[in-house]
Design goal:
Blueprint (H helix, E strand, L loop, with lengths): L2 H4 L12 H12 L5 H20 L33 H9 L3 H13 L3 H6 L5 E4 L4 E6 L10 E4 L2 H13 L10
Antiparallel strand pairs: 1-2, 2-3
Length: 180
């Protein structure tokens, strides 16, 4: 797909500001009407090939095809993208009403604690710490080496406390509350 745009260029000429690469991104967005994510996937393939040319692939005399790997290829700005905005309460209710009950509860918990999606999916009762002086609880999410090694704190507001209480009676956050 991208070969007609870049096929005549030498590898060293391909970088973020290569006119042909910029034109490809604009064409895919404006003419083909694909999403920015679709263009980004193609750019990721190009970036991967350039990195292989710099780090793995060798000439007959054992030299890399490229002397240095190019920086990350960036996605062109989507002129049709709408600016992000916070959901209004009625929009949130409508969105959550389309989800199955268990996913709606997870989404409600997530938006009210600021925890990441993967953290909510892996949430364990052992991470909960009761704060009697606040009449509340928090979840201390352990850090992960591939993300941030630092623990993250999920503070439960009233909506999140309601979800946690509901799940506590169903024991849906990993192990049951009595086991940890």
């Amino acid at each position: 797909m991208i070969e007609p745009w870049l096929g005549k260029l030498e590898l060293v000429a391909i970088h973020n500001d290569t006119p042909e690469l910029v034109a490809f991104g604009k064409h895919r967005l404006d003419v083909d009407k694909v999403s920015p994510t679709t263009v980004k996937r193609t750019l990721e393939v190009v970036r991967h090939l350039l990195h292989l040319a710099a780090r793995k692939w060798r000439t007959e005399d054992k030299q890399p095809w490229l002397p240095i790997a190019p920086p990350l290829l960036e996605m062109p700005k989507n002129p049709h993208a709408r600016a992000p905005y916070p959901l209004a309460w009625d929009e949130q209710r409508l969105l959550f009403s389309w989800l199955p009950k268990h996913l709606a509860e997870m989404a409600l918990f997530k938006v009210n604690t600021g925890t990441r999606g993967g953290e909510v999916c892996a949430l364990g009762w052992a991470w909960e710490q009761i704060m009697p002086e606040l009449n509340a609880s928090v979840f201390v999410v352990p850090g992960r080496p591939e993300k941030s090694a630092e623990d993250r704190l999920g503070v439960l507001n009233q909506a999140a406390r309601t979800v946690a209480s509901t799940r506590r009676t169903c024991s849906r956050f990993g192990a049951s509350p009595s086991s940890g």
